[in-house]
Design a protein that fits this description.
CATH architecture of the largest domain in chain A: 3-layer Sandwich
Distance between the termini of chain B: 64 Å
Order of helices and strands of chain A: HEEEEEEEEEEE
Order of helices and strands of chain B: HHEHHHHHHHEHHHHHEEHHH
Number of domains of chain A: 2
Largest sheet of chain A: 4 strands, antiparallel
Strand content of chain A: 35-45%
Helix content of chain A: 10-25%
CATH class of the largest domain in chain B: Mainly Alpha
Shape of chain A: elongated
Oligomer: heterodimer
CATH superfamily of the largest domain in chain B: Cytochrome Bc1 Complex, Chain C
Radius of gyration of chain A: 25 Å
Number of helices of chain B: 17
Largest sheet of chain B: 2 strands, antiparallel
Shape of chain B: globular
Radius of gyration of chain B: 28 Å
């Protein structure tokens, strides 16, 4: 190989190696935290005796979570729908584009104010653009206390 | 498959060139003729370019996590060091890169001076270089404060007080640097802004001007050019630049891997036991201050640095003879002054390094009674679940600045019986484990942590 070509290849390789090292460190630090997930925990949401059968009750759950270098207290709204001795917990986040839904007690349905998404009291889509039902969260009942995993 | 991809790439490059003319630009950049004999001494500028690039790229990475507020800055740097994957290395490269950059800038200036490269017609190129050296020191100084640790706080306090000694306008300069009557959020905000916006814009502009001027006048080349035709910059000199850059880069990565960038305790203005010391590149000024006490202080803070900078700015206009050799008759005096400055800075730095004050063994009264009681309780009880100033568990919320979120009454209620304050909590009640006085002292102390 020609001497000049060897030099050019060597220059290119060294610069590529330095660039790759920097990209690995900066890119790794920039990208890696994006894929961490918040661990779930069980939260007391309500007393079973305080829930009306078939009527979603919005409850606010307090979550202390890491937020980068800080910690913050977040609040998530969950609908609790009692059905006999069992309770279904529905995340209030619309599955269309993430707006906060609200329960319309007159029409007995959950509505999204952003783009008109509608869900029935079990979280099933009954109208509008949402592609899937409201997310159901795991629940358990201990001594009349309703616990939700969030 | 490969042939089609190569053909597509070639056609794309052709199209791009027809629209931008980038090949001609690249050719003119790479085919710069260099005087024969241009050797390794002329690679120092490329090393600075590399190190500035490293500082920019790592600085962008750090800015994704850094929070420029006194209540959050230290925690965010600790977060970078301990939680962000490779964050310790990212900060290490930036921290040590600053020292490398100062050394590289000094070495480059030394080379330019010794080769007489500042002489006509390159006076403005030299001036832009001197300004860049000052910018690099400005970066180092403004970067100091950002971690908001003890060193940051006290080094900035000293810097602002040094600025105060400026004749006539000192008080105003200090007020502007502080952003208000006290060192705090307003100070950190403006130093952060200077570090990530003002100084980078200025430095990039100066680098662009410096390179454009270098291309306009060509490089000065060796003191005694070798006979023969000029060589082209690429690849005959670029290979030397690349090897030198690779050596420096490998050294920087090695040091960043082997030595963690330090982070002191969070800034504590009440801690009288802390002995502030600057980084090595400001140690000469720090040491000089010791020899000019009281009313003579402006000699160390203003006169001596002013004379040195003045000499550097004026030297191309004073040394007008054509001879470039550093020991030629016309240059001897200038070289002597330059060497004297170098020896002075070096000697002061060496004395400063060895002149370490003994660590204070006197326990100063940094905490009041509440703090002393609270510290005992924290160390034995709260530590397992809560962080305070960077140490402690992560089960419960970080208490470092809890006073900014909760008042005394609320804190007292939570410590006594968390379930009375919250619907759900894993924290046990302490009303039966601590006395009322202890709970009150702890709540008062925590409420004071703003």
């Amino acid at each position: 190989m020609h001497r000049r070509t060897v030099l050019v290849r060597l220059i290119q390789s060294i610069h590529a190696l330095m660039g790759a090292t920097l990209a690995f460190v900066v890119g790794g630090a920039a990208v890696a935290p994006s894929f961490t997930r918040r661990p779930s925990s069980w939260r007391r949401a309500a007393d079973l005796s305080g829930l009306e059968d078939g009527t979603p009750k919005p409850v606010s759950l307090r979550i202390v979570r890491s937020d980068g270098a800080t910690e913050l207290i977040d609040r998530r709204i969950v609908y609790l729908v009692r059905s006999g001795d069992s309770v279904r917990a529905l995340d209030s986040t619309c599955t269309h584009l993430g707006c906060r839904t609200r329960f319309n007690p007159d029409l007995k349905r959950i509505e999204c104010p952003c783009h008109g998404g509608m869900y029935d009291v079990t979280g099933r889509v009954i109208g509008g653009p949402p592609p899937s039902p409201l997310q159901t969260l795991p629940t358990r009942i201990e001594n009349d206390r309703v616990l939700v995993e969030i | 498959m490969f042939a089609r991809a190569r053909s597509l790439a070639a056609r794309s490059a052709e199209w791009l060139d027809s629209r931008t003319g980038y090949r001609a630009l690249l050719d003119s950049a790479l085919r710069e003729p260099l005087p024969r004999g241009t050797g390794w001494f002329f690679t120092t500028g490329s090393v600075i370019t590399l190190l500035v690039g490293v500082q920019f790229v790592t600085g962008i990475g750090l800015s994704m996590y850094y929070l420029p507020a006194p209540a959050l800055a230290h925690d965010s740097v600790r977060f970078i060091m301990t939680v962000v994957p490779l964050g310790w290395l990212l900060r290490g490269l930036h921290f040590w890169g600053a020292s490398f950059l100062v050394v590289a800038a000094i070495v480059h200036m030394l080379r330019v001076f010794m080769f007489g490269s500042y002489k006509a017609p390159r006076e403005i190129t030299w001036l832009s270089g001197v300004l860049m050296l000052l910018m690099i020191l400005g970066f180092a100084l403004s970067g100091y404060l950002l971690p908001w640790d003890q060193k940051a706080y006290w080094a900035t306090t000293v810097t602002i007080n040094v600025a105060k000694s400026t004749p006539l306008v000192g008080e105003y300069v200090a007020d502007i640097m502080r952003g208000g009557p006290d060192l705090g959020a307003l100070t950190l905000g403006r130093w952060f802004s200077a570090h990530v916006f003002l100084l980078p814009i200025t430095l990039v502009s100066l680098i662009a001007a410096h390179i454009a001027l270098m291309r306009k006048h060509g490089i000065s080349g060796p003191l005694h050019p070798e006979p023969g035709p000029a060589t082209t910059f690429f690849p005959w000199h670029v290979i030397k630049d690349t090897v030198m850059m690779a050596g420096v880069f490998a050294s920087l990565v090695t040091i960043a891997v082997l030595f963690r960038a330090p982070l002191d305790e969070v800034a504590n203005p009440a801690d009288a036991s802390y002995v502030p010391r600057p980084e090595w590149y400001f140690l000469s000024l720090f040491q000089l201050l010791k020899y000019f006490p009281g009313p003579l202080e402006p000699i160390a803070t203003m006169v001596v640095p002013g004379v040195v900078i003045g000499f550097l700015l004026l030297v191309p206009f004073l040394d007008r003879a054509a001879d470039r050799h550093p020991f030629s008759r016309s240059r001897r005096a200038f070289t002597a002054v330059f060497v004297a400055i170098g020896i002075g800075v070096g000697a002061l730095t060496a004395v400063g390094l060895s002149d370490r004050p003994r660590e204070s063994t006197v326990v100063t009264n940094t905490f009041d009674d509440d703090a002393a009681v609270a510290k005992d309780i924290y160390d034995t009880v709260c530590f397992a679940c809560h962080k305070l100033g960077g140490d402690g568990g992560t089960v419960g919320p970080n208490l470092t600045h809890v006073g900014s979120r909760r008042d005394y009454d609320k804190l007292r209620a939570i410590i006594a019986d968390p379930l009375a304050a919250y619907d759900e909590s894993v924290m046990p009640p302490f009303e039966d484990k601590l006395s009322a006085d202890q709970i009150n002292a702890l709540a008062r102390y925590l409420a004071s942590l703003k």
